[in-house]
Structure formats: structure tokens, C-alpha cells
Specification:
Elements lengths: L4 E4 L8 H12 L6 H10 L1 H9 L8 H15 L6 H8 L11 H9 L3 E6 L3 H11 L7 E2 H4 L6 H11 L6 E5 L2 H9 L3 E5 L20 E3 L2 H7 L1
Parallel strand pairs: 1-2, 1-4, 2-3, 4-5, 5-6
Helix pairs in contact: 1-2, 4-5, 6-11
Length: 227
């Protein structure tokens, strides 16, 4: 492999979105019986909201706005009506997610050899806030808002080699989601699968391996060991 840069899916791969969102739901909506269930419901609206943009049924819209719209719909369905200040604070839960225990150490080691950055559907402000809070040592912030394409649109993956002046195979895509890696491979990127069995709190068990990835690992530190 001649990999020069590594780009990372973020939600579920670098950070634990479920626990972080549930924590903020419990803090801001104390009457909700099961904060994790609400977090799961909110996350379940993630792909459908982006599909409206991917399909061009609506113009380009950043993830913070899509998250707010999904939240408003979710709260209405549940008969909840918190004030606007609480709703805005809940949207910022996605900016304050904790990294998986291996993430910062692994990224720091990988950064010594590779250019590293997120390849996320998150908007730039979200990703920068998250990185500052969690200590994620990115060299560059890439992803949907930069490319103006939501994964798995080809344009999202094509943007990384174009912006970094590399051939597609010189960019490694790191993700905990096989469908993300399938789409990246279709654009010529080298792929690395990270098994994150706790992403969905045991509700969904991800595959143990991606046999078509260059490597399957259980942590970023293991990826750093192998690379």
C-alpha cells in the first residue's frame, strides 16, 4: 500500500454518538424516561434527512440544520415542547461527543506518519467544536460541507484525493460502517474497517470484519501498530 493520508468517518467510528446524545437528553429533558431510546430515534432520522439533499429535493443544507429539523419533528411526535433555547442546546449535543477510549492516542500516532482528517457528514463548525473539546488532532477538516455532498455520494469521497493532491488509492478511508467503505472503495480509496461493537448499545451488532477492506482492526491503536 502507498497510503499517504487517512480520512475518518466520525459518528460511531471516532466518537460515541449514542452515549453523548443520551447524556444531553437526560440533562436537558429530565422528564424523558429513556434518553438512549430518544437518541436512537433521533439518529434514525439522520439518513432520511440527508437523502432529501442527496436527491436534490431540497438545496444544500448543513447537518446542524437537518439535526434541528429532525429534533423538532421528534419532539412534536412525543408531545414534548421545550423552549427554543433547550432545542438549540440539544442540537449542540452532536458537537460535544466523547471519543472512543483508543481514538486520541491512535490518531496522534497515525498523525506522525499520515495526513489525517475527518471525512464526515458533519458540518465544519460541528467537527471543529468536537475536535477542540475531545482533543482530536486533525490536520485538515474534510467532509460533506467542503464537498457539498453527503456520503455515500461519490463526490464526498472524490473530494479527499482532489484536495490533498493524491491518487485515490493513496487515501485510506477508516470507518466502522461497511456501507461507507463499500462506497469509498468504489471511488478507488483504500479502506480500513474498525469494529465498534458498542456503537448502538447492543441493539445492532456490526459485522466483525469487512473482508474487502485492506485491514480490519478493533481500535485506532491497533491500526497504528499495523500501519
Amino acid at each position: 500500500m502507498d497510503v499517504r493520508a487517512l480520512v475518518f468517518d466520525v459518528f460511531g467510528t471516532v466518537v460515541d454518538w449514542r452515549s453523548g446524545v443520551a447524556r444531553e437528553v437526560a440533562r436537558l429533558l429530565p422528564d424523558v424516561d429513556d434518553p438512549h431510546e430518544l437518541a436512537d430515534d433521533w439518529r434514525g432520522r439522520y439518513q432520511p434527512s440527508m437523502e432529501e439533499v442527496r436527491s436534490e429535493r431540497r438545496p444544500w443544507t448543513i447537518l446542524d440544520v437537518l439535526h434541528r429539523e429532525s429534533l423538532d419533528a421528534l419532539l412534536a411526535e412525543r408531545g414534548l415542547d421545550p423552549p427554543d433555547t433547550v432545542r438549540a442546546e440539544l442540537v449542540l449535543a452532536w458537537h460535544r461527543l466523547d471519543p472512543w477510549p483508543d481514538a486520541v492516542e491512535g490518531l496522534t500516532r497515525l498523525k506522525a506518519r499520515f495526513t489525517i482528517g475527518p471525512m464526515s457528514n458533519g458540518n465544519v463548525a460541528l467537527l471543529v467544536d468536537m475536535a477542540k473539546r475531545a482533543g482530536l488532532p486533525w490536520d485538515v477538516v474534510l467532509g460533506a460541507e467542503v464537498a457539498r455532498h453527503y456520503k455515500p455520494d461519490p463526490g464526498a469521497y472524490d473530494s479527499a484525493p482532489a484536495l490533498l493532491a493524491l491518487r485515490p488509492e493513496q487515501v485510506g478511508m477508516v470507518a466502522a460502517h461497511v456501507d461507507d467503505l463499500v462506497a469509498a472503495r468504489a471511488r478507488g480509496l483504500t479502506t480500513f474497517y474498525v469494529h465498534r461493537p458498542d456503537e448502538f448499545g447492543g441493539r445492532v451488532v456490526p459485522p466483525a470484519t469487512d473482508p474487502d477492506a485492506a485491514l480490519t482492526v478493533s481500535s485506532f491503536t491497533e491500526l497504528a501498530d499495523l500501519l
